[in-house]
Amino acid sequence: MAACTRAATMNSLFGVVAPGPKDLWSLFFRILPKLLGLPASLMKKFRKGKNFHLALAELETSVGTLQELPQEVLMDIFATLEICDLIRAGYVCSSWRSAYTCLRDLGKYKHSQTPCLLYTSRSAGKNVACLYSLVENRTYKLTLPGPPIRRSLLIGSSNGWLIYADKRSELHLVNPITGEQVSLPSVITIEQVKPITDGSGIIHKYKLSWYSGHVHEDGTPMRYALDKLREYLYFKAFVFLDPCTRSYFVVLIHHPRFQLSFARLGDDKWTWLPQNTEYRDCMYMDGLLYALTAHGEINAFDLTASTVTMKVIVNKIESYPSALKSWYIICAPWGGLLQVWRTFSVPEQKDEDEDGDPCFHTTKITIYEVDLKAKDLVETKSLSNHILFLGHNNSLCLSADEYPRLKANHAYYTDDRSEPPVALKSVPRDIGVLDLENSSRKKVASQIWSNWPCPTWITPNLTKMNLAFSK
């Protein structure tokens, strides 16, 4: 069953099992000629659009020659491709398929992927996710295993994995490229959630307490239907790989008051981190979990210790969190940490305009470098040759040299406001590209997405988790 699901996913992603002439042309014209030194004269024929059939015959001759390359050489070539082109190349012939499969299964695929926008569409179907490629300016469709993604709540995207809550508010991971799926520990193992059962012992509601570990902070617990709890409990989630143990763990930001819980591979329950509240973003670096609050405070957790400890890296910057900001913590490519503040504005006309623009607009992004010695922030005016990706994804700062198709000194963002998702179902999402120099905004594409679940950035990844969280 799992193999069939993966095959269906790949077929849906690329439309056909074997690429046709135009697909071959696209694949070779854009990537392989540069890698393999195919003649420039051949490429000119394609660029001019003349003698297509003659050029195609020459191309097919080149393909025949390339099919005879040793598998090791093919694997070296394939490892430099974007995943969309890699999987498409795997359908060209049996030898290429073998090289692709070996590359994937051995975990030797290391090419840095360009983030794509993952979204749903009413016309695509309840189990179909759409992947918009910033490199190709085109959309691919992926058929995902259940539960239906259009009925799920997406709360995170990290390392190629989506984290989402189903209609019973239970959490799952899914890799939309490989089709691999993992169930996370039950929602009733989160500290503040308790099940409410009927006379036969079946859970029919949840009770959410307001307890956050602080003194004098205990309100009346709220009761929610199975499918409603997720909208009031979850904010963001992250999947991190610990390089030392080669195992995964998931970090969850949840209510009440944006607290932290985490689960390691093999855990049967969530572990609560009660030291602080108002967290908005997390990252993992050098064996430590860094968590950023809406006050600008950065805490570091050593999750490998028998007793988890917390250290304050940067003290509070703001006394009260603003409802019109989002906060991010990012590992800088040149080393160290970045703290990013994203500011929203509310237009005078609060309803959407004729272009479907959202009620809230991202108007400014402020970037700070973290001075670990002084425990302070130093504002930087420009990222020069770097790019930000912000939203419900793990926050990213990428080098423009490695991603030449993207806009340097720009931020690509999706909507990740902290209001309960139920309040945003019918509101156009704040998605776009912001010039960090002059704060001008552009659209990623014309609105091709549905508002629910909220679109998110995802970095495609062929690596398999192989193991699952055991229950």
Mean pLDDT: 82
Can you summarize the main beta sheet? 5 strands, mixed
According to DSSP, the number of beta strands is 28
Shape: globular
Unreliable segments of 5+ consecutive residues: 1-21, 45-50, 350-354, 467-471
Number of helices: 9
Q: How do the strands of the widest beta sheet line up side by side? A: 24-23-25-26-27
Instruction: Determine Rg (CA atoms, Å).
Output: 23 Å
What percentage of residues falls in helices of 4 or more residues? 10-25%
Strand content: 25-35%
Helix-and-strand structural type: alpha+beta
Fold and architecture overview:
With 471 residues, the protein is of the alpha+beta class. Helices cover 18% and strands 32% of the residues. The protein contains nine helices and 28 strands. It has helices at 2-14, 21-30, 32-36, 40-48, 52-67, 71-78, 83-89, 94-105, 229-233, and strands spanning 116-119, 128-133, 138-143, 153-158, 161-165, 171-174, 181-183, 193-197, 203-208, 222-225, 234-242, 247-254, 259-264, 271-273, 279-285, 288-293, 298-302, 309-314, 325-331, 337-345, 361-371, 376-380, 386-390, 396-399, 410-413, 432-435, 441-442, 456-458. It has a five-stranded mixed β-sheet with strand order 24-23-25-26-27, with no helix packed on it. The chain has a four-stranded antiparallel β-sheet with strand order 3-2-1-28. Strands 4-5-6-7 form a four-stranded antiparallel β-sheet, with no helix packed on it. A hairpin with a 5-residue loop joins strand 26 (432-435) and strand 27. Helix 6 (71-78) packs across helix 8 (94-105). The longest helix has 16 residues, at 52-67. The chain is globular and about 70 Å long. The model is unreliable at 1-21, 45-50, 350-354 and 467-471 (pLDDT under 50). Residues 63-98 form the F-box domain. It holds the Pfam family F-box-like. This is F-box domain-containing protein.
